[in-house]
């Protein structure tokens, strides 16, 4: 079987790339012929590793993906930049159309059995006779994305033409309820496997591996609550791993509390998680939280705000972690696990066991089942 994954940015090493990489490598091991095609690169971004078991190609390695849109032209009317912005809009879109034509030609020459589109924008580049063989793989919260008028327009434009692949059963149900057809769901796989389980009673450490920002991840809120928790216990710490900028509020807490440590980006999430005890999540929304399943893989239970859609499929409340709705409840549940060793140890065992369904081999079987039309997923 020949498979072609298409994404918009080839060297933007983030969540979507890590998911695609794991799936592509697993499908390659299963004997499928897999290629990843990117429309553009972003100069200055991280580069994708070379030692892969599948082929990767980028159509345009020079131009940025970020282009001028109609809304930018309309905004420019108020800023007296209309002519310059309009010229840039025309130029950007002509270049993008050329890239799309190259993508279309690449598809025809490669002639895949199935196409997996990782971004809705690439659907415009797929030849009409390949749309029925296309799975649009949505990597974010559907409810959140529906606030984007352009995205919503694309969903209905390609409804009944492509297959929709969602991250959770709940998201698939939402899709069906808004009138979308040909729906499937498959969970994302963890980036790593380990036979080890963290010594959660000995480690005495709160942890998060995430992006440092506030619109979605609400890092200020996490710092505020972790700071209050640590005031109640003497021998625990909180470690933060990630990339991004803290606000002045965040910097103040980091400066005032030496037991809260920002340790930057890590390329060894398994190692840092195996040395922790409780994972924290304050996200406002998530499509599917990789940080939760990676923590669970190491036997780390998560205390999380209810971020909707996937939360109840990633955390079994009161068994593999806690799902909360208020600040007070968040603090209460973290302190409960800190002060109740039996509960913390049991949750650690449960989280590790529950996470088996996110193993790449199990996820690979789901992909094969979907592609071979062997039945419901």
Q: Can you offer a commentary on this structure?
A:
- The mean pLDDT is 91.
- The chain has two domains: 2-188 and 360-371, Rossmann fold, CATH 3.40.50; 200-358, Rossmann fold (3-Layer(aba) Sandwich).
- It has helices spanning 15-29, 70-79, 82-110, 142-145, 149-157, 169-177, 200-203, 219-230, 248-256, 269-273, 290-297, 311-314, 327-339, 341-354, 360-371; strands spanning 2-9, 33-40, 55-60, 114-117, 134-137, 163-166, 183-185, 205-212, 237-244, 260-262, 278-281, 302-305, 321-324.
- The two termini are 20 Å apart.
- It has 15 helices and 13 strands.
- With 377 residues, the protein is an alpha/beta fold.
Give the domain tally.
2
Q: Categorize the overall geometry.
A: globular
So how many helices? 15
Helical fraction? 40-55%
CATH class of the largest domain equals Alpha Beta
Content of β-strand: 15-25%
CATH architecture of the largest domain: 3-Layer(aba) Sandwich
The residue-averaged pLDDT reads 91
Strand order of the largest sheet: 3-2-1-4-5-6-7
Q: Which sequence of SSEs, written as H and E, runs from N to C?
A: EHEEHHEEHHEHEHEHEHEHEHEHEHHH
The residue ranges in which pLDDT falls below 50 over 5 or more consecutive positions are none
Q: Tell me the Rg in angstroms.
A: 22 Å
CATH topology of the largest domain: Rossmann fold
N/C terminus separation? 20 Å
Q: Got a strand count?
A: 13
What would CATH call the homologous superfamily of the largest domain?
Glycogen Phosphorylase B
Largest sheet: 7 strands, parallel
Which structural class fits the helix and strand makeup? alpha/beta
């Amino acid at each position: 079987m020949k498979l072609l994954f298409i994404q918009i940015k080839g060297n933007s090493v983030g969540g979507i790339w890590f998911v695609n990489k794991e799936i592509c490598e697993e499908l390659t091991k299963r004997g499928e012929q897999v290629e990843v095609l990117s429309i553009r690169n972003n100069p200055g971004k991280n580069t994708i590793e070379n030692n892969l078991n599948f082929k990767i190609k980028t159509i345009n390695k020079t131009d940025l993906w970020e282009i001028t849109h109609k809304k930018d032209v309309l905004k420019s009317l108020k800023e007296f930049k209309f002519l310059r912005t309009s010229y840039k809009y025309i130029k950007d879109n002509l270049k993008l159309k050329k890239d799309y034509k190259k993508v279309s030609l690449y598809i025809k020459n490669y002639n895949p059995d199935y196409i997996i589109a990782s971004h809705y924008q690439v659907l415009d580049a797929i030849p009409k006779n390949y749309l029925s063989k296309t799975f649009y793989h949505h990597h974010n919260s559907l409810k959140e994305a529906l606030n984007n008028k352009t995205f919503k327009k694309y969903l209905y434009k390609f409804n009944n033409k492509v297959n929709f692949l969602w991250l959770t059963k709940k998201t698939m149900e939402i899709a069906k309820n808004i009138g979308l057809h040909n729906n499937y769901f498959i969970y994302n796989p963890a980036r790593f496997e380990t036979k080890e389980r963290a010594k959660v009673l000995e480690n005495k450490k709160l942890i998060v591996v995430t992006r440092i920002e506030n619109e979605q991840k609400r890092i200020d809120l996490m710092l505020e609550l972790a700071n209050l928790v640590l005031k109640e216990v003497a021998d625990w710490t909180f470690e933060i791993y990630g990339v991004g900028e803290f606000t002045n509020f965040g910097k103040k807490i980091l400066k005032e509390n030496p037991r809260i440590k920002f340790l930057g980006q890590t390329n060894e999430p398994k190692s840092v998680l195996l040395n922790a005890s409780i994972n924290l999540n304050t996200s406002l929304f998530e499509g599917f939280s990789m940080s939760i399943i990676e923590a669970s893989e190491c036997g780390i239970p998560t205390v999380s705000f209810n971020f909707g859609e996937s939360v109840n499929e990633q955390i079994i409340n009161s068994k593999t972690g806690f799902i909360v709705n208020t600040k007070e409840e968040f603090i209460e549940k973290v302190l409960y696990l800190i002060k109740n060793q039996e509960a913390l140890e049991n949750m650690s065992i449960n989280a590790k066991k529950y996470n088996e369904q996110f193993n790449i081999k199990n996820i690979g079987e789901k992909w094969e089942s979907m592609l071979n039309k062997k039945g419901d997923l």
